Amino acid sequence: MTALGTDLGEVAGFAAQHAYLAGVPLLLGLLISLPLGWVALRRRWLTPPVIVGTGLLYTIPSLALFVLLPGILGTQILDPINVVVAMTLYTIALLTRTVADGLGSVPDHVRQAATAMGYGPLRRFWAVELPMAVPVISAGLRVAAVSNVSMVSVAALIGVSQLGLLFTDGFSRSAMGPIVVGVLACVLLALLFDLLILTLTRLLTPWLRAART
Amino acid sequence: MIRLEGVTKEYAPGHAAVDHLTLEAATGEITVLVGPSGCGKTTSLRMINRMIEPTSGHIFIDGQDTAQVPAAKLRRDIGYVIQHAGLFPHRTVLHNVMTVPRLNGWGRARAESRAREVLELVGLPGDFARRYPAQLSGGQQQRVGVARALASDPSVMLMDEPFSAVDPIAREGLQDDILRLQQELGTTIVLVTHDIDEAIKLGHRVAVLRQGGILAQFSSPADLLAHPADDFVADFVGRDRGYRALSFQQADVPVHPEEPVRIGEQLQRRGDQWLLAVDAEGRPQGWVLPAEVAEAAVALEHLHRGGTVSAVDGSLRSLLDAALSSPSGRGVVTRDGVLAGTVRAEEVLSVIQSAPRPDGTSIQGGAGDSDGAAAGVGPQQNEHR
Ligand SMILES: Nc1ncnc2c1ncn2[C@@H]1O[C@H](COP(=O)(O)OP(=O)(O)OP(=O)(O)O)[C@@H](O)[C@H]1O
Ligand SMILES: [Mg+2]
Question: Does the structure's ipTM exceed the value 0.85?
């Protein structure tokens, strides 16, 4: 099947690749941001280096990162791992502050009550602080998801297979069709991510809806 | 028994928030820490469950030095209730209350049935269990806070201004519940408040702290009112301590028969005399003026509800208050909630006049002559229960 002169079967394959390259880093980045955000919040002297340091990651041009990483990691230039690592770094850049903000939004008296009940620091984090930070973290995650989806396309310039290839293809052939299809697919993918995050958040925060009724 | 031995906390070197505090909270009693803001009450309380570590000194619970017990383990064995309840907003009432049993490794089913049991105990049955904290009133949240602290059946419970954020009526109900629960369960409670009335109502023994965490007086409430150790305590206990001391005195007061009218009845009697209205069970409801009722039957809207009601064997304070607050000047007294008669202010006063002062001494004696002063741990028992 084709549309606008583009093979839709191929587009679907690109889209799956694209989702993988944007989605896996989202999860990895979140996992790494959790301890970083916690440390930034709880150890005062580490707040500036962690927040500023991770924030600066975002200013590294993505193309430069895609080109530099193989040298650092010892991987092939076309290896999708490079893209995963780069996108993970960008996710960390976006999420660390958000995680710190989310954990910081837990009221002091609730944290103290948790301590007084006999939670150790680690259990308190999983059982009380993290669940209560979900709304804030989820907002940050939505931004990171959209950012990842759009940034992954850049990897087309180094030839990694995903939706961005439609742009380079359209550009080299001076054809509008693939570009339009590529943009639509990207937007659709971003919306899908957004919907997924929203649904998960909703499932994790029944207490927020109860409070409003 | 909880024993603080020379406990000091300095947040900054040389500035003691609590200074060489030595005191004993007896097993099965309510010990109240009271004092002005910033005097170190919360700090003292939190050193007991090691949320704050003392700079020096030792704290023993039933002879065991708390410094030797892992902090998290220690805290699971001690109930803790704070102002604003500190409930976990993301958990239902039931799961809030299940917290400590679950931390102690109980299975889900056992923790849940225990949680339902304590919720019942604090007056929040059935349907409340499924709600989230945001769906409760402040007073109800505080009840859940108490239930959560009670869930693992701790022998020791710490309470930091548990009722200061709820309105006066809800507060009284909560206070009465705590008294009842403490009596039923025999829990050893240390309670912090800045409200001297609450201290006197709840405490078997009351520790008055002054700025810098220094113990000013530690004695029974009656003794505190009768013999403030010094000007600071006298000031803190307040001007109407003579009146409040009547809370701890009981005596027989003449009870006059009172011919009530029933709500829903037609008035037989006329005139400008106040009449007392009772419900079908004989419980006093309020006063009525015949003129305001006219030809109608006595109804709720005719009631003047100004007066307080005292139990016939209540304290002299509640008897006097019933008489003083009654629009008719006749103070309503009840036995098991049912009208027993009325008392007169002048007769209560003359009983007060002739009654012995607490401990056989004079209330007017004033400050400075007390033997209950300072850190002394005397043998006096609380007389108000
Ligand atoms: N974490 C802290 N760091 C430094 N100083 C503190 C800290 N916590 C309390 N303090 C100081 O220690 C003193 C006692 O504080 P604490 O909270 O024990 O008082 P409190 O009697 O509970 O007061 P309140 O009735 O206002 O709750 C105060 O002067 C307070 O400013
Ligand atoms: Mg305090």
Answer: no
Structure tokens at B232: 């600071």
CB-based burial label for A99 (10 Å; 0-12, 13-18, 19+): buried
**Which domain range does residue A56 map to?**
2-205
**Structural domain that includes position B14:** 2-240
Q: Containing H/E element for A33? A: helix A8-42
CB distance B344 to ligand 1 below 6 Å:
no
Q: Is residue A210 in a domain?
A: no
List of chain B residues whose C-beta atoms are within 8 Å of the C-beta of residue A113: 80, 82, 85-88
How far, in Å, is the centroid of ligand 2 from the Cα of B171? 18
Q: Which of these, B248, B320, B232, B322, lies nearest to B284 by C-alpha position? A: B322
- Tokens standing for residue B44: 């003292």
Q: Under 8 Å CB-to-CB from B298, ≥6 apart: which residues?
A: B261, B262, B263, B264, B265, B266, B267, B277, B288
Has residue B35 got a pLDDT over 90?
yes
**Dihedral sign from CA coordinates of A28, A34, A40, A43:** negative
By DSSP bridging, strand B330-335 and strand B309-311 are: parallel
Nearest ligand to the CA atom of B35: 1
Contacts of B82 in chain A (CB under 8 A): 109, 112-113, 116
CB < 8 Å to A109, chain B = 82-84, 86
Whether B114 contacts B101, CB under 8 Å: yes
Which residue's entry shows tokens 């002299």? Answer: B316
Q: Do B89 and A205 touch (CB under 8 A)?
A: no
Mean pLDDT value across residues A31-45: 91
Would you state the pLDDT for residue B371?
39
What is the domain count for chain B?
2
Return phi, psi of residue B85, to 5°. Answer: 65, -35
Cα B27 to Cα B178: distance, rounded to the nearest angstrom: 16
Q: Which residues pair with B119 in a beta bridge?
A: none
Nearest ligand by distance to the CA of B52: 1
State whether B274 and B202 are in the same domain: no
How confident is the model over B74-86, as a mean pLDDT?
Answer: 90
Q: Is B105 on the interface with A (CB under 8 A)?
A: no
The arithmetic mean of pLDDT across residues B336-365, rounded, is 76
Residues 61-80 of B with CB under 8 A from A: 72-76, 80
What's the CATH code of the domain at B282? 3.10.580
Strand partners for B341: B333
CATH code at position A85: 1.10.3720.10
- Which residue's CA is the closest to the ligand 1 atom numbered 12? B17
Question: What residues form DSSP beta bridges with B80?
Answer: B158
- Mean of pLDDT values over B98-104: 94
Q: Do B51 and A115 touch (CB under 8 A)?
A: yes
